[in-house]
Amino acid sequence: MKQNLTLVIDADLLKAARRVALDRNSSVSNMVREFLEQTVKEASQRQAALEDLEDMFRTERIVLGPRTWTRDELHER
Predict the structure, then answer these.
(1) Where are the domains of the chain?
(2) Which of 18, 40, 57, 59 has the greatest number of C-beta atoms within 10 Å?
(3) How many Å apart are CA 48 and CA 44, to the nearest integer?
(4) What's the sign of the alpha-carbon dihedral 53, 58, 64, 70?
């Protein structure tokens, strides 16, 4: 179900947005809708990635071998 949204923006910004929309064979409404869709999608992907990382940190165990180097060896030139 689609719903209307009322935005209050500067007249110059609206005029410029209409020019951009015309160049893209689109409308300001479509541009706003696409922007919101992309923003929500990115937020969902970011949240899923964070949840995956948290899960990995909880479940994965990394076994490190013995250290075979010294700090001085690392910084030798």
Answers:
(1) 11-64
(2) 18
(3) 6
(4) positive
> Phi and psi at residue 51, in whole multiples of 5°?
-65, -40
Secondary structure of residue 66 in the 3-state scheme? coil
Backbone angles phi, psi at 12, to 5 degrees: -65, -40
What is the residue-level pLDDT of the chain in tens, covering all 77 positions?
989 999 999 999 999 999 999 999 999 999 999 999 999 999 999 999 999 999 988 887 777 888 888 999 889 87
Q: Which single residue is written with the structure tokens 């005029």?
A: 15
Residue 33's nearest CA partner among 15, 17, 49, 12 is 17
pTM for this prediction: 0.67
